[in-house]
Write a structure and sequence with these properties.
The protein has one helix and seven strands. It is mainly β. A hairpin with a 7-residue loop joins β3 and β4. It is globular. The relative contact order is 0.28.
């Protein structure tokens, strides 16, 4: 199963660009992989989906850049991933928190 999404903003530049149309494969019965680009739901009526790269998966050590915002959490817990944008000035898990895998809609191939 596939879904169409449109990139909004520059958080994934230079890999993906604002307005770019993508086809994402629905994530069924597997966890996302490190470095994979995912589409996930957020509680924001203006921008209900975000597109980010998986930085760490369940069981991984919390990345150094994220550790100060998650004190006392040495590893990514089961059922969650940490995300980052390709643009260094984008929102990532420091602002969004860890992403619940149940909110992941799909993965983008070739990004």
């Amino acid at each position: 199963m596939w879904i169409r999404v449109t990139v909004r903003g520059n958080s994934m530049a230079p890999t993906l660009h604002d307005g770019q149309k993508l086809v994402a494969r629905r994530l069924l019965r597997r966890s996302p992989r490190r470095r994979e680009v995912i589409v996930f739901r957020v509680p924001d009526p203006e921008l209900p989906h975000r597109i980010k790269r998986v930085a760490a998966v369940a069981g991984d050590a919390v990345p150094d850049w994220l550790a100060p915002t998650l004190p006392g959490t040495p590893h990514v817990p089961a059922g969650f991933v940490a995300v980052e944008g390709d643009n260094p000035r984008s929102q990532d898990s420091r602002q969004l928190g860890l992403i619940d895998c149940r909110d992941i809609v799909g993965t983008v191939r070739g990004a």
